[in-house]
Amino acid sequence: MKKKNRVKNIILGILTVLVILIFSFPFLWMLLASFKTQAQIMSTEDVLLFKPTFDNYKSVFEQYDFLDFIVNSLVVAVVSTIGSLLLGLPAAYAIARYKMQKLSLVILVARIVPGITFLIPWYILFSKIGLVDTYTALILSHMLVGLPFIIWVMMSFFEGLPHEIEEAGLIDGATKSQVFLKIIMPISGPGVITSSLLSFIFSWNNFMFSIILAGDKTKTLPVAVFNFISYSETNWGALMAAACIITLPVLIIALVAQRYIVSGLAAGAVKG
Amino acid sequence: MGYNWFDRNLKWIYTMPALLFVLLMMVFPILYTGRISFYEWSMSATEPPRWVGLENYKALLTDGRFWHAVGATFTFTAGALFFQAILGIAIAMLLNRTFRGQNLVKTLFLLPMVATPVAMGLVWMLIYEPTIGAANQMLKFFGLDPLLWLGSPNQVLPSLIIIDVWEWTPMIALIIMAGLSTLPNDPYEAADVDGATAWQKFRHITLPLLRPTIVVALLLRLIDVLKTYDIIYATTQGGPNFASETLNLYGYVLGFQYFKMGPASTLLVLFFLLVMALTLALIWVRKKVEA
User: Fold this and answer.
1) C-alpha closest to that of A271 among B92, B286, B11, B170
2) DSSP letters along A104-170, please?
3) Is B39 helix (H, G, I), strand (E, B) or coil?
4) Can you name the residues that pair with B51 across neighbouring β-strands?
5) Radius of gyration of chain A from Cα atoms?
6) Is B268 inside any structural domain?
7) What is the CATH number of the domain that holds B122?
8) Cα B236 to the chain's mean position, in Å?
9) pLDDT given for residue A204 in this prediction
10) Mean pLDDT per 10-residue segment, chain A (272 residues)
């Protein structure tokens, strides 16, 4: 019996390693290729052993205004997340505490509707009032992804808090908004971290809204990286270096805050 | 007095800004899209929109490219969901035990779904590249003939399904793992007493108990797979020969490449209704399963 268990464990271990290898393979491939010359990428020999070069990273920053794109992406992601938190936290609290079922349904619909349905009216409207290629247009559109998500996650978070905490505050003579700001918010750290990290990631990754609403001045990273393919003949090394740079912050967030990300991604499922 | 008024109306004061935002940015655009779907307009400043009634709808429903997009959307969605469900359950069962490095494994597993899809699309383009790509080198290693992958109208959808499966199977696995951790112990103990095999336990205890969780996971994925855009647009832009042009992409092309705002809006109205109908149907199924 013992021996059988050991064999079983070894097989499961090998399977686990295999699964991880398969799922990490594209990342490994991207990382390797970003340090290869075009000739090294083109050759199918010495796939793993080669003399690394940093030229790809250099060319990404020297030939293209990559730093500008990074700044654009950061500004849009940070501001749209803060905006979503400012609008979303009080709303989520009210929906959770006063059981506003109809509103929670509206939020659910906002998460389901295909984003492209809004894109045509936004584009028409934003071109009319000269907002295409501005941070405002990008931030507003990204907030439509972040806000429903933040409300959705925080709703279930607030529902999980015991009522007694608030009642104690009210008996002490605090107003309801003081209770929210001074008692509820300070203990909501985990929920806020989870929802804002994911909202940041969604904005950082957003391609569909940005490719239409961003222009030369506000081009975000996903759009910039995509334009690399269309403008030049494929320089795979530079392309992979760009892909590494754009993925890096998200990967760091996932590594450092794994627990929060998992609970955020699962939150949609628990109450979905 | 001011405090009292604020406190009594707190629920509206707190929700109003978010609600206004959603109304302005979501409800109004949907209504506007609905309106434009009855007009013909190329976004020209000199030529105003022209009322055409149901012409756009008639044209679209007899447009071969539209039905082709419907087919591509369903093939992609069904294929991706099928493999994600099976692999997701299998991987969740595999990882649902205590072992060394468990946390690292779960973190690595998380990466495909948070990594920027456009960047991942580029990486997969390199992997699928017919002459230098890893995919064909792998096939060669196993003595198989090379494929064209994204370059062939027949192989492009399966190739895209593989990308989506890679990206999102972890999501299903994570949800199912969360479900597994809530399962009661008693049925398994009873099964052990009866001498049930591992497969029997999985088939007759785990799977039925997990059914609601699996349905929820698939529902979430269905909503997103239908709307897949980034990966497809970044790698193929709907090609080759429109073979990977889903509804989302065709709507995009009509609106922002041909500037046919009327037909594009018509397509988006139908797409919107389709997504809503499927979601409602699945919520209904979920209620049935849970009852």
Assistant:
1) B286
2) HHHHHHHHHS-THHHHHHHHHHHHHTT-TTSHHHHHHHHHHHHHHHHHHHHHHHHHTS-HHHHHHHH
3) strand
4) B39
5) 23
6) no
7) 1.10.3720.10
8) 17
9) 95
10) 77 90 92 87 74 85 86 96 96 90 84 87 89 92 92 89 84 84 88 91 93 90 86 79 92 86 66 36
Is residue B11 a part of any domain in this protein? no
User: By C-alpha distance, which of B234, B267, B10 is closest to B123?
Assistant: B234
**CA distance, residue B166 to nearest chain A CA (Å):** 7
CA distances from B184 to A270, B180, B189 (A): 18, 9, 10
Asked if B128 reaches chain A (Cβ–Cβ under 8 Å), the answer is no
Q: How many CA atoms lie within 13 A of A207 on its CB side?
A: 25
In chain B, count of helices (H) and strands (E)? Answer: 15, 2
With b for 16 or more beta-carbon neighbours within 10 A and e for fewer, the A33-54 pattern comes to: bbbbbeebbeeeeeeeeeeeee
Pick the residue from chain A with its C-alpha nearest to B110. A254
Can you spell out the DSSP letters for chain A?
-HHHHHHHHHHHHHHHHHHHHHHHHHHHHHHHHHTS-HHHHH--SSSS------HHHHHHHHHS-HHHHHHHHHHHHHHHHHHHHHHHHHHHHHHHHTT-HHHHHHHHHHHHS-THHHHHHHHHHHHHTT-TTSHHHHHHHHHHHHHHHHHHHHHHHHHTS-HHHHHHHHHTT--HHHIIIIIIGGG-HHHHHHHHHHHHHHHHH--HHHHHH--TTT--HHHHHHHHHHHSS--HHHHHHHHHHHHHHHHHHHHHTHHHHHHHHHHHHHH-
> Are B175 and A266 a contacting pair at CB < 8 A?
yes
The pLDDT tens digits for B36-84 are 999 988 877 777 888 888 889 998 999 999 999 999 999 999 999 999 9
Partners of residue B40 on adjacent β-strands: B50
Domain ranges, residue B218? 63-259
DSSP B129-178: -TTT-HHHHHHHHTTPPP--GGGSTTTHHHHHHHHHHHHHHHHHHHHHHH
Which architecture characterizes domain A54-271 according to CATH?
Orthogonal Bundle (1.10)
Q: What distance in Å separates the CA atoms of residue B53 and residue B211, rounded to the nearest whole number?
A: 46
In a domain, B34, yes or no: no
**In a domain? residue B101:** yes
Amino acid code (one letter) for A237: G
**What are the structural domain ranges in chain A?**
54-271
3-state helix, strand, coil in chain B (%, to 5): 75, 0, 25
Please tell me the pTM assigned to this model: 0.91
Residues in A 96-135 with any Cβ partner in B closer than 8 A: 97-98, 100, 103, 106-107, 109-124, 127
Q: What total of structural domains would you count in chain B?
A: 1
Residue whose pair of structure tokens reads 């895209």 in the numeric block = B160
The answer to whether the CB atoms of A116 and B132 lie below 8 A apart is no
The minimum CA-CA distance between A20 and chain B, rounded to whole Å, is 7
Q: Is B227 on the interface with A (CB under 8 A)?
A: yes
Q: Residue B50, SS3?
A: strand
